Structure formats: C-alpha cells, structure tokens
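Mods, move this if it's the wrong board.
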Amino acid sequence: MKRILVCEDEDAIRDFVVINLQRAGYTVVDVPNGERALEEFERQNGDFDIALLDIMMPGIDGFQVCKALRAKSSTLGIIMLTAKTQEMDKVNGLMIGADDYVTKPFSPSELVARVDAVYRRVSMLENNAGTPRVIQSGCFELNQKSRTVSKNGEVVDLTQVEYQIMELFLKNQNVALDRNRILTEIWGDNYYGNIKIVDVNIRRLRMKVEDEPSNPKYILTVWGYGYKWCSDPDTQPQTTQA
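Not the wrong board. Structure tokens:
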C-alpha cells in the first residue's frame, strides 16, 4: 500500500493534492499543520512511504517537520511544497534531508510524477532482494543487504538518496559520472526539477563522508562535467568543493 502523509495549511491546496494523489493510487492522510503531522506520524508508528510538507506554515514550519521526520527515519521519502522561488529555500530543504521539492503552482501531472519518483526509490528498499553484496573502497564499506555505508567501521547516517548516490559511486569507482547520468540514475528519466539537485545532494553527502568537506578527497569534482569517486585519495591531486 502506497501511503503518504500530506501536510498543508491551505485547505484548497490540500484538497487538490489529496484528490490527485488518491486518483494516482495513494492512501493519503492529510493534516493542516506541522504539529498534527508529527502527531500523526507517531500515532501511526511511522507507517508512511512519503511525507509531502508545505514549508510556510504557522507554528512548526515544514523545515522543522522535515528535520524531525528525517531524524526518525532515513528511508521515508520527503518532498517539500513551497510557494517561494528563491533557490535558498530549495537548498535548505534538501540540506536538512528532503528528497525533492515542488514549487507552487504545480500541475497534477507534475505533482504525481515527483511523488511517484520518490516512491520508486522508497520501494526499492523493500524490493531489492537480489544477491546483495559488500562493496569496498578504502576505508568505506557499502552493504547492499542492510543498505548501509560505514567508514572505518562506523556506520554513516545517510538518507536513501545519499545511500543511492554512494552505491552509484562505489559501483563506478574512479569513473567520471556526468551530472545528467547521476540525475537519471537517482531521480529517474522523467524528473521535472533542476539538475542543481545533484550538486546540493553531493554537498550534503560530502559533509557526511569527507574528513574535510571543503577539501574533499573521495568525491571529486570533474569541472564542467560532474563528479568522480576516488578509491585512492593519496594518488589524486587536490581539488576544491563545487
């Protein structure tokens, strides 16, 4: 069952979102504010695949709800709804753990496409029951069975998107990956958003895996192209963060 928590304080917009998601096959629980969203998440023991959160709400805003939900679950898909077009709002949401954002006004097809894309990533966590293996890269170990990444034996706290980026990198060590390939591999062929979502998530991932995020050794920038995972930093020239 595809379950989604919708948190939007404007009744008309919330009704519009609920109707279109229900038509797309989702079971929707909708609430009008951040306080109710956190209460409902706890009441239902976190039994949601996705949370759709409006940023601008009285009381607890969408950013605060996103932080709280991400602290409770690394696999929950989180999408931010915002009426603002400022780049910083989008970056802030992604940096605190959101998977994607949708800017108002949006069409039903865009909304459903973005939700579907995040749901596909979430469902992979349950359905990827092939032949899991462990991938090594220096001090890093990626375990496909537990879907975890550890550094020097310590598990790194990653969101599902960050884990998928790490998996893509470690399957392609020392190979330059262009931004469009990363976007397609992680967000899908029909992603509506801006390719800058790749750069923001790389920045967030560097903060978790690099010793010095401003002077990365593992996730290197390939200028004008994309990024590369370096399996042996001692043999590579220094680079700076994008």
